[in-house]
Amino acid sequence: MLKRLRDESGMTTVEWLLISPFALFFILASIQILQALVAQNVAASAAREAARTYAVYHDAALARQRADEVISGTLPTGRENWANAAAVVQPFPGNSRIPSVQEGFGVAYSPDLAGAKETKDGAELPVAVTLLPVGPNLKGVNLSYHVVDQNKVLVWDGARTPVGDLNQRESKTVDLRIPQKDLELLQKGFTLRLDLVKEGQWWASQRGSPCRDVSGKDICAMLDVKKQLDEARKQAEEAKKQMEQSKQEGVAQGPAPEPKEGQLSMTDKPHKERDYDCNFDPEKDVKLYDDGVYCTAVVDYHIRTICPALPKLFNPDASAWAKWIDVSGKAVFKHELETP
Question: What Pfam families does the record tag this protein with (predicted)?
């Protein structure tokens, strides 16, 4: 009798060892699917807020801020330790002295790549400059930049863009001017490093405020996209004029032309990048589009996967062994007049 009980106990243990991996997988998969569904709903809400804000105020930085508030109020963003890391003063090439605690302050830079545009003598990049509640108010400051290649400084004194006075918690958006000679360096893949300057006195990076790096390739890629959009818009206008002329002349209309291969299109799928620094970064994961009539916002959120094959369930183009599950929300609002 005792031997029989031992045999049954051993069989039960073996059965449990065989079943437990599958049971654990289904439990974890159920939890992660529920997490992804919640994240998808929150991303959709964030997209609605961003699109509504962009349609009313036409301010990309404010729209991204609203999306960030919705996401961070419900879901982890993975940026909780960024503020502490940014507070650590890193040595920067060209610093002539060590900043002291008494004179230190913090400045945050939020570049809007979608708003970059070409000018006659180069390009302009909208940047929101915010003075953090650390240190004194600033008067008569300018936004500038350095062009760097890793740790090598190629251009130290970049072009100046007036910001004026900045009080604590105040944010101002200015169009950073980038001359053609510096734009050519960015086209080669060098980095634009944003920095605030008080003429003849200090650079913000020398007084303890971290800079903000912007990839030159990203800036130039956005300028190229806008060129293509402008060309496509011109072609559409010319085609419309030709159609109107044909109607007036009584010429029979043929079938609509097929879209050309490689034609630009807007999609609500997350970008192809698969190795993310955090779950949500408003600068990269909030994409805004404005065609003059409708404002569209696409918000992506990334969940680190703990079960294989789940990423492919949410995105058929993803690998079954991807590290992240990508979910996104999309919203479209019509242009509205800005309220006073």
Answer: TadE
Q: How confident is residue 275, by pLDDT bands cut at 50, 70 and 90?
A: low
d(CA 176, CA 203): 16
C-alpha R_g of the chain:
26
Phi-psi category of residue 117: left, alpha or beta, with phi > 0 → left and psi -120 to 50 → alpha: beta
Determine contact, residues 209/109, Cβ cutoff 8 Å.
no
Decide if 43 contacts 300 (C-beta within 8 A): yes
The pLDDT confidence band at residue 8, using thresholds 50, 70 and 90, is low
According to DSSP, residue 337 is labeled P
Domain-located, residue 12: no
Range of the domain at 51: 20-79+278-340
| E strand spans, 77-132 | 107-111, 117-119, 122-131
Tokens of 174: 């200015």
Token couple for 30? 């159920």
Do 105 and 158 share a domain, yes or no?
Answer: yes
- What is the three-class DSSP state of 138? strand
Q: What three-state secondary structure class fits 290? A: strand
Residue 223 counted as domain residue: no
- 7 inside domain: no
pTM here is: 0.45
Is 78 within 8 Å of 277 (Cβ atoms)?
yes
103 and 187 part of one domain: yes
36 plus 97 within the same structural domain? no
